[in-house]
Design goal:
351 residues; eleven-stranded mixed sheet; 23 strands; 23% helix
Amino acid sequence: MKGKGTKTLIVLLIILILVAGGVMAYKIIKDKKGETEEVSENQNEEILTAEVKEKQVQIFKGDERPIAVMIDNHSDAWPQAGLNQTYLVYEIIVEGGETRLMALFKGANLDKIGPIRSSRHYFLDYAMENDAIYTHFGWSPQAQKDISSFRINNINGITESEKTFWRVRDKSSPHNAVSSTEELLNVAKAKGYKTTSTKESVLNYVVDEVNLEEGQEAKKVTIPFSTLQKVRYEYDEENKVYKRYARNKAQTDWDTGDAVTTKNIIITFCNNYTLNDSENKGRQGLNNTGTFNGYYITNGKAIKIKCIKEARNLQTKYQDLQGNEINVNDGNTWISICPTNANVQIEGMSQ
């Protein structure tokens, strides 16, 4: 009887060991399966995140507040630095038939921007509609007045240190003042300006390619702002961008030597006029509130549009002739605001 009991006990122990081993093996397999599923889920999440990111507009992303910088466009200021890193550039006529540029940067990190020049009051309208920190080196009397009236968050290089704005030696004054995004942001923070913004883009950028199938051929675009300043854009078929020329000279980057290019061109026709100010320097005003004719040009095609600005501090609406907001390709844009009588030429392939 004793031997029989011992055998039974041994059998029970073996069964218990087998059951325990089975439970342990099941748990190990389950854990490994869980780990595999977790890795797989993480990988799927990374793939989905990458796909979502790929489908997001890249030229206007993040919550960094734009910085608008007045760029000297006199021929002695060429070449300029930073224009290829903008998301938006406005070109508008100033005194003497010259044009000046206002370059907008968002989330950029640039060691040199410029040459930086003085403010003109109508550029403030476009700084406001982009909720940008407005940067300039001096100002006209009207600009000084309007910066105060509209409480523009501005940075005036004349009143800042040589650490923030400095003059380079390879250009002559007044065409040689430059700064960097880091220095401008440091000044903005010191002045208590907000450096983030939730304001939506002025332009309706989309990720799907806009080809303007019904538009006219636009391989070469010529914009005569004045008898002095004539700008030309030529389409680069391979890279799907427009190369910029001014006064028959190719525009290049100051440091890299790369061609200055843009994905999109917008033309707005509205008249400028000469101001009767105390300094009598022929400075200009701009009739830019209302509805104006224009063009949207991208990927070698152009369509006619309407440009609607209801007030100086309100965003411009860009619509097709049916009243729909235009879709704009994800890429940088140059907005040319030129006189109504400018003989703009939009052409197909060169003969």
